[in-house]
Amino acid sequence: MSGPRGISGASMVRLVAAREVAARVRDKNFIISSVVIVLVLVGVLGLQVAFSSGSEEIRVGLVGDPALRAALEQQGDALAVDVRVVELDDGAAARAAVEAGDVDGVLVLDDGQEPELLVEQSAGGSLQAVVQGAVAQLALAEQLRAAGITSLDVPEVSVTALDPDADADGQRVVVAIIGVGVLYSLLILFGQFVAQGVVEEKASRVVELLLATMRPWQLLAGKILGLGLLGLAQIVLIAAIGVGGAIAFDLVDIPGELVGTAVSVVVWFVLGYAFYAAIFAVAASLVSRQEDLSTVVMPTTLVLIGAFVVGIQASADPGGALARITSYVPGLSPLVMPVRQAAGDVAAWEIALAVVLMLVAIALIVRLGGRVYAGALLRTGGKLKIREALNAERA
Amino acid sequence: MLEFDGLHKSFGVNHVLDGVGFTVAPGSMFGFCGSNGAGKTTTMRIAMGLLRADAGEVRWRGRLLDQDVRRRIGYMPEERGLYPKMKVGEQVAYFARLHGLEAAAARRAAEEWTERLGLAARRGDAVEKLSLGNQQRVQLAAALVSKPEVLILDEPFSGLDPIGVDSLAEALLGQVREGVPVVFSSHQLDLVERLCDSVGILARGRMVATGTVDELRRRETGRLLRVVVPDAAPRWAGALPGVRVVSERAGDTVLELADGTDDQAVLAEALRTGRVTHFAWQQPTLVELFREAVAVPTAQEVAA
Q: Which end of chain A has fewer CB atoms at under 10 Å, N or C?
């Protein structure tokens, strides 16, 4: 007997997966879709940055009394404007800084003279308000001190928030919707990739050559795994850009929870992908031509769309009966549970239950679907019924 | 030895294989003939594990074919199949890896075989860009790249032009010289006759004849005798014992002799009629043998 030809099932799966990855990363459609997704993401981040008013920043130069620095920053806080104070040496440096655009304006305080605000053209509303307020505050304090009044008895207004987390809640939901949207798009995209790959092998008849060297489950597992790794890489990339960007540009008040939601979306992607990829693969194995593909994957696609709609609905009413029930249902849970998790009112046992149900469903589909797949692969021509494929498997 | 032993297979009520068995010695070429639907492809698919036999088994060197043994078999399916968008070189290397070669060895073997089959310039092209003939060569490269111990080829010559036929025949003979048993099916019986050491004829799921082409001939030879006697009267041989006249036209006579009949007595009778311009046992071509073997079903076969 010759050579070391024994190959384990695992290395067979690895070979198939490696081919899938290599073939896909060179595929134009894949490259284009990846680039588009990243561009859209960056675009959304850019818009958010452009429109978010909370992060207006004013750079104020200051010549003279350093005590004004604190006053300026205090005024900024009061007016919800970020004030950056740059201390400058004299009037000449002040002019240079304004002309160079390093600062929006310079407050010049020469002893004995009126305070002066140097700007290039005109002072924007908040710049003038901040400076005016700071100067007034300081002057008021000085005059009070001169008058011998050291402390003023000003009643402080106490604030009672009726819904202190309203803003944060809103952000959580928005983050969850974005996450579910990404999840849904990638499930559809990679489900299609799996289905097309299966039909391609059947249509080109290469599958007969493949099955002479490996078992159907190895082919199925390798294909799902290879494309799944690509999908995972893509969703992790998207999550990293999205979360990183949101935190870097300070778009959210809840960075910790944002990361948590992103992680749960990634985990649910893995489960959802395993579920849908197996179904797509099995459905695709029933036909022999790309043209027939859409009819067999349609039902699964509809389920996915339904899950997406329910997921969006759940973001409006995360505690409602619909969201609650569907978050346990395998196939729907990947698009509903992350929303409930983001909204925060879900118990650990509920998540565990949804995950377990999902795993059970995946195991069943892989077992049964694997048999359909094995029976259908060598039957070409026309569209096969699932029952025929199951019978053929025994052939 | 590559042994096909008592293969039975039914699809529903359709009994496709009914005890198919034959043996192929290492370093010999076996031609597998049969009409369409006779069960050739089914037999080969069973050998490759693509179908499960209802009964019977296929062995190589006494060992039942399993996934590990099959990895040492080069296979060309009847339905040609390659990844259309994959590059030639990568594709051949991929199949080498599926047959158990390490990455580096697979790359080397792919280079060697694309070179040997005249595809060196097309290594970087997608398979779908190649002509059908060249695609067929890639298919052959995929079957040969892993240095298989056995070759099983389903209709490897179909769709090839005469030059393609010659180069494929050359490649297969090369494999045979290296000691590889080669089984291929074909409708081109002249080709089978020219290339094969032994032949099997399959009809309605049974092997109706196996052996070397010579053996098959000899079975038929000794039965049909052609005698040309231009001056003889009609029915000149009709009275000879043990002789049946198959055909007779202007002295060109084909006779069927029963076992034990003396051909020299026939010659003597012929000479009595005058000139004998031709006296020889008929050498049936494989085509004739094939027609003979396929055409006459036994009662049992008809029942099946």
A: N
Residue B235 is assigned to a structural domain of this protein:
yes
B189 in the same domain as B276: no
* pTM for this model (two decimals): 0.74
* pLDDT over threshold 90, residue B91: yes
CB neighbour list of residue A34: distance below 8 Å, 6 or more residues apart: A234
If one counts the domains in chain B, the total is: 2
Residue percentage of chain A with pLDDT more than 90: 26
Shared-domain flag, residues B6 and B40:
yes
Please indicate, yes or no, if residue B290 is contained in any of the structural domains: no
ipTM of the complex: 0.78
Chain A from 343 to 382: CB within 8 A of any B CB = 378, 380
Interchain CB distance below 8 Å, B80 and A205: yes
Structure tokens at B200: 């099997």
User: Residues B28, B210: contact at Cβ < 8 Å?
Assistant: no
pLDDT per residue as tens digits for the range A249-264: 777 777 777 888 888 8
Between the alpha carbon of residue A329 and those of residues A281, A333, A363, the distances in Å are 21, 5, 15
Residue of B209, B205, B210, B211 whose CA lies nearest to B301: B205
Statement: residue A179 has pLDDT above 60: yes
Indicate which CATH number applies to the domain containing B277.
3.30.70
Return the CA Rg of chain A.
31
| Whether B34 and B170 share a structural domain | yes
Side-chain-side CA neighbours of residue A268 (13 Å) = 34
Query: Are A293 and A207 in contact, with CB atoms under 8 Å apart?
Result: no
Contact A212 B50 (CB under 8 A): yes
The CATH label, of 3.40.190.10, 2.60.120.620, 2.40.240.10, 3.90.1150.10, for the domain at A55-146 is 3.40.190.10
Distance CA(A139)–CA(B269), nearest Å, equals 150
**What residue in A sits closest to B97 (Cα-Cα)?**
A15
Domain of B248? Answer: 222-282
Q: State residue B160's pLDDT score.
A: 83
Q: How far apart are CA A384 and CA A380, in angstroms?
A: 9
**Phi, psi for B247 (deg, rounded to 5):** -155, 155
- Let me know whether B67 and B180 are in one domain: yes
Give residues 48 to 87 of B whose Cβ lies within 8 Å of A. 48-52, 61, 67-68, 70-73, 75, 77, 79-86
